[in-house]
Design goal:
Elements: E1 11-17, E2 20-27, E3 33-38, H1 49-55, E4 59-64, H2 81-95, E5 100-105, H3 107-118, E6 123-129, H4 142-154, E7 161-162, H5 165-175, H6 181-190, E8 192-195, E9 198-201, H7 217-224, E10 231-235, H8 251-258, E11 261-264, H9 272-275, H10 277-290
Parallel strand pairs: 3-4, 3-5, 5-6, 6-10, 10-11
Antiparallel strand pairs: 1-2, 2-4, 7-9, 8-9
Helix pairs in contact: 1-10, 5-6
Length: about 290
């Protein structure tokens, strides 16, 4: 099997803010125009390697492992959108003096949009990859949601053991049939860790449980309507999550409310930055070049 060989090797550092030690990866010269990239759920900053290989010749790419993911510290008290948002705010405050472009995938895309609405003076453009908000939580399920959350606090989920890196790679390929074997092995290497001889995924198993607060699309939609900079959305072959194709507010409603330019990558899975980094980069570069 051939190995995936990065065109641009990342620089890795660790910064502490909000009481947590965060892992930060960077690609490209520090003198280049910066892009902050935010990864998705159960993922890490290493997942941007393929996109960084397309962009790091022209841009400085900075990508943190969000709290509880990758090599950033786990948090015993749990996780929330609000905590992620506070961490992003701290990263931008510490690392960047001028407004910058923020790009996010899935969970990271939803956070990028929220951050651009809340801290619009710190952002000059925002791009979301298949992160267009979620469907509203069924109000009849609120009690059950809080019961699940309490149960997860009492008995936290356990990490799932993996037989080997090859096993991890096979699981990634089963989850995304578009993923090539060399990329799967690259991701498996960075998304797993071995502790006391046991190989597990490199994220806090608590992330498999629910957030404390039920999701409300109205909060997210209100926030993104406050965005004052150019917005680009790049979608996979099918709307994600599928429910936003039919249930209001639909994807079309969300595009209208956000003022986003929208492009779809035919044939790409939800992990479109793995499947088609060249196409994602082409849309991104064209978008960034339109406003300087």
């Amino acid at each position: 099997m051939r190995r995936y060989r990065p065109l641009h090797e990342p620089r890795k550092s660790f910064l502490s803010f909000n009481g947590i030690r965060h892992c930060i990866r960077e690609w490209g010269s520090p003198t280049l125009r910066p892009i902050l990239m935010l990864h998705g759920h159960l993922d890490s900053s290493a997942s941007f390697q393929f996109l960084a290989d397309e962009l790091a010749g022209d841009y400085r790419i900075v990508a943190p492992d969000l709290r509880g993911f990758g090599e950033t510290r786990w948090v015993a008290s749990g996780y929330s959108f609000e905590d992620y948002l506070a961490d992003i705010d701290a990263i931008v405050e510490q690392l960047f003096c001028e407004p910058l472009t923020v790009v996010g995938h899935s969970l990271g895309g939803n956070l990028a949009m929220m951050f651009a609405g809340v801290r619009h003076e710190k952002v000059n453009a925002v791009v979301s990859l298949d992160g267009f908000g979620m469907s509203d939580f069924d109000p009849h399920m609120v009690t059950a949601h809080y019961r699940r959350w309490l149960d997860a606090k009492r008995t936290p989920p356990r990490g799932r053991s993996l037989q080997s890196l090859q096993d991890a790679a096979r699981r990634l390929m089963r989850a995304n049939s578009n993923l090539s074997e060399d990329k799967a092995h690259f991701l498996a290497k960075h998304h797993t860790k071995r502790t006391d001889g046991e190989l597990t995924w490199r994220f806090d198993p608590a992330h498999r449980g629910p957030f404390p607060r039920p999701y409300r699309s109205s909060d997210w939609l209100q926030t993104i309507q406050e965005i004052k900079v150019p917005v680009l959305w790049i979608g996979s072959d099918q709307p994600y999550p599928p429910s936003i194709a039919l249930n209001p507010p639909t994807l079309d409603d969300r595009i209208r409310l956000s003022g986003a330019s929208f492009h779809r990558v035919p044939g790409a899975s939800h992990n479109l930055h793995h499947d088609a980094p060249d196409q994602v980069a082409a849309y991104l570069l064209k978008f960034l070049h339109t406003f300087g």
